[in-house]
Amino acid sequence: MIALCCVFLLPNPDSRYVARFSNMYASSSMTHALERPSDTMSASPCLRQVDRALSELRRGGLVILQGENGESGLVLAAEAVTQQALNQLRQLAASRPVLAITNRRAEVLGLGSAQSEAVSLTLDDGADAEFVQSIADPLAPRPATNRPMGLAPIGGACCAGAAVRLTKLARLLPAALMAPLPQEGQREALAKSHDLLTVTVADILAYPESAARSMRQVAWARVPLEAELETKILAFRPADGGIEHLAILIGNPDASQPVLVRLHSECFTGDLLGSLRCDCGDQLRGAISEIAKTGGGALLYLAQEGRGIGLVNKLRAYRLQDAGLDTLDANGELGFEDDERVYLPAAEMLRQLGFSSVRLLTNNPLKVKALAKHGIDVAQRVPHVFPSNGHNEFYLRTKADKAGHLF
Questions:
Q1: Would you say the pTM of this structure is higher than 0.70?
Q2: Which of 39, 137, 238, 314 could link 306 by a cystine bridge, Cβ 3.0 to 4.6 Å?
Q3: What is the percentage of the chain residues whose pLDDT exceeds 70?
Q4: Are 151 and 294 found together in one domain?
């Protein structure tokens, strides 16, 4: 309608232009009707609460974490801690906070490990925000004092593992301050008086799968590429409004046969800037060319930078690599596992595209196992190897020797 009004405002409008804009408007309306999310796109309370909690933690705010047995605590992301926020945490909870870190980070610090996914460290009253950051972040300045400030590992701290998971989902350093709320009814009172969000442990544990299964296609467009003119890009968004994953459909894949597919985790530095530190850019462009040569297939561009730790943490890992660590040990120094990626979103996208069987273009056997685990038949693993460039030799050797990649 807007386009038609604009045409009539033109002096002596040619009827051909009126017809052209009318057709464009009708076509646009039909396209949007086809792409409009269905009722199944509405986010469940689980997705909404967790997504809101992630935003709050990234802003440096407090959230209330509720366990399965009635226990609860206040959570503050260690990366975002300030002295003011730390003082508020202690005041509102009226209890001594603990610092929850991953087993991997605890081992790096020489503090042992536990059977659970997180280790809780006691902090004495002298521990300030600078000290907390120095424990959570290996690149943070060391505090001037050499006092240990507590740091005794304890077991069974309220919801520590879920708190660490929240920080990972928020793409922050995997460490959180937890202050238990020991008084009955304290959680409800704090939530109401200080407008604090409450999220449950059960919702956090269910979040990755719930988000992946809620994904729906929200947009698509034809985008001719150098390697293949017949290319479409489709965007898939989870119901909580989180980051989109993309499917690049190349050529004319035959869904009745195993489709050549590449799972490619986004890499800002390699894909966009041409970084020589990794082989991601070569793999991306090489995969598109290879798929085009075979007549058709798909490249899934997954929003999980840095093996799932996020771009900011990947830059931190690069700093640690410059100091002599390999890519996997750098992740461990930050508190992450070797590979934090999940492939359920990829499997869900393939199902919605109608691809139940694939020929997977990869050197990583874990991707083969992950797709099979999520119900996608991997008929063949297709090698995807490129020569080193002189800057990524150590990186590629680490992937082969320590991560089991097949070159």
A1: yes
A2: 314
A3: 79
A4: no
